Amino acid sequence: SCFWFGLQYWAMLVGYSLVGAGRFDLLSLPWKVASTSLAVLFPVASLGLWLTVSWGPVIWVLAAGGQILMYGLLPDIFGPNKLIILLHVMVAAVYWTFRLLLWLEKRRHRRQVSVDLP
């Protein structure tokens, strides 16, 4: 979804989507700042998540947090979009569930005692 969000923002900024109404030169200042930031952050986050490097989730949290701020706290400027907020919350919940399960599995393997003597 990160890569798709990034593509959507780039398509909007260059005038490919929204019938050209979302071109960078036609946007208000808050939309210029938000859309250019997210157009960079989302593809970088998708690369980091794909490569499973430690900075991938961090960049995703920044991008998702930006969208949550846009649509959740500033709906008078950016418009409300509860679906994107719900999507990010669900993805974060799944991510943290997997992290917890991995931690529990590692902890279980560390507690197993093995005797090397015959």
Write the SSE topology.
Layout: H1 2-14, H2 29-50, H3 55-73, H4 75-78, H5 82-111
Kindly list the characteristics that best describe this protein.
mainly alpha; single chain; 0% strand; 118 residues; 5 helices
Describe this structure in words.
The structure is a single chain. By secondary structure, this protein is mostly helical. It is built from five helices and no strands. The protein has one domain. Helices cover 75% and strands 0% of the residues. The radius of gyration is 20 Å and the shape is elongated. The N and C termini lie far apart (53 Å).
Summarize the structure.
It contains five helices and no strands.
Indicate the proportion of strand residues: under 5%
| Distance N to C terminus | 53 Å
Question: What is the multimeric organization of the chains shown?
Answer: single chain
Structural shape: elongated
Order of helices and strands: HHHHH
Q: Report the average pLDDT across residues.
A: 93
Largest sheet: none
Helix/strand/pairing class, anyone? Answer: mainly alpha
Q: What is the count of β-strands?
A: 0
Unreliable stretches (pLDDT < 50, length at least 5) are none
How many separate domains?
Answer: 1
Taking Cα atoms only, what radius of gyration do you get, to the nearest Å?
20 Å
Number of helices: 5
Q: Residue share in helices?
A: over 70%
